[in-house]
Amino acid sequence: MRTYEKTHPWLTFKLDLRLVPWHLWLRLGECQSKCQHISNVPLKVATADRLYQLFLAKGSLGSAAIEGNTLTEEEVVRHLEGRLTLPPSREYLAREVDNIVSLCQEVTDQIAGGQTLVLSRKRIQEINRRILEGIPVEPGVIPGEIRKMTVGVARYRAAPAEDCEHLLDRLCAWIEAPELSSKDEDVRLACAIIKAVVAHLYFEWIHPFGDGNGRTGRMIEFSLLVASGVPAPAAHLMSNHYNLTRDEYYRQLDAASRSEGDVIPFIDYAVRGLLDGLREQLRIIWQQQWDIAWRDYVDEHPVFRDKDSKVARRQQALVLDLSATGEATSMKAIPELTPRLARLYAPVSERTLSRDLAVLEREKLLEHTDAGYRARKEIILAFRPPAAAARERAAGDAPETS
């Protein structure tokens, strides 16, 4: 009998997927569906790059922030764009993010290049070494080397040092076992999400390194998600969720070890966060698509057929700038709404603005409400439920966007 079998009996490397409750399968099914939607969404290259940069910043910072990184999301975005200068005393914070970003990009490129991701003890050690590269660590900690001392997080004591190599080998073998996978396309990705979460949880229980275990475990989870077919922007959502619910994250890790190895509550906690993130991610992507489609609709509208007409250009700018505000604007405030509108309406009278608004309202591009004028972007939503429109009219609200 190994020491961990007496001290950590919950490290059983067993999970019967038949015990996963139906409500968790429903959430997993929705996660799978939303991942497939994101995988096939068409966006302009510049828009997609900007959104990916945002989700990459959230995910990499989320993983680092749990361990105490104090950079803000805005600072990380600026850093990734090469626009952030930090004082020497804080440069290590950016290096910590860079290490995570570099590994994420490497995994994504490997999968995109057709390589098969094989998780081994050697690979996990390399992940830990890369994560801690150039980062201050405690005396006695050697990045990438299995620890020889006892470590823990809060009340939790990690697995015995002498068993860590054996436990990592067992973990790598287990996650490739048939019991955690499915060839059925209806549940394949859902099972892969379970596998990634469980691999993360077991790794944190083992805690094989002197430092960087949290970041390494979350990188393992990210790698398994991407390898299974989860889009890279969506695979960052787990780390962001753990950071946003940091206290609950540690509570769930601790609770799982005190429940005789019942991993389902932790899976449920992780999947809830993933699903919330996917819903928000799809809302952002859908909003971008809606804006692009609306601009195309306005650009092709018959009222603006004469593109060389000063009147047509002015009226088109009026529609598009009102669209960007997302809310109703009074007629008096319209000329000051944007610099472009200020420039276009400065030389003309208020009667001209009134006439332009009347034309656009007649063409059903704008709507006049008690609060002012708003763009009717919802008219291009071909299959919008009638009940949604009825609720908005009754409440006097702007169209629902989720």
Largest sheet: 2 strands, antiparallel
Low-confidence stretches are: none
Number of helices: 17
Specify the helix fraction band: 55-70%
Q: Structural class per helix/strand content?
A: mainly alpha
Strand order of the largest sheet: 1-2
Give the number of DSSP strands: 4
What is the CATH topology of the largest domain?
A: Fic-like fold
The CATH architecture category of the largest domain equals Orthogonal Bundle
Oligomeric state as shown: single chain
Radius of gyration of CA atoms, rounded to a whole number? 26 Å
CATH class of the largest domain: Mainly Alpha
Please give the alpha-carbon distance between the first and last residues: 55 Å
Q: What's the pLDDT, averaged over the residues?
A: 91
The CATH superfamily of the largest domain is identified as: Fido-like domain
Net shape: elongated
Note the beta-strand portion. Answer: under 5%
* Helix and strand run: HHHHHHEEHHHHHHHHHHEEH
Description:
This protein is mainly α and 402 residues long. It has 2 domains: 3-286, Fido-like domain (Fic-like fold), CATH 1.10.3290.10; 302-395, Orthogonal Bundle (Arc Repressor Mutant, subunit A), CATH 1.10.10. Helix content is 59%, strand content 3%. The chain has 17 helices and 4 strands. The strands form 2 sheets. A two-stranded antiparallel ribbon has the order 1-2. α3 crosses α5 (91-112). The chain is elongated. The mean pLDDT is 91.
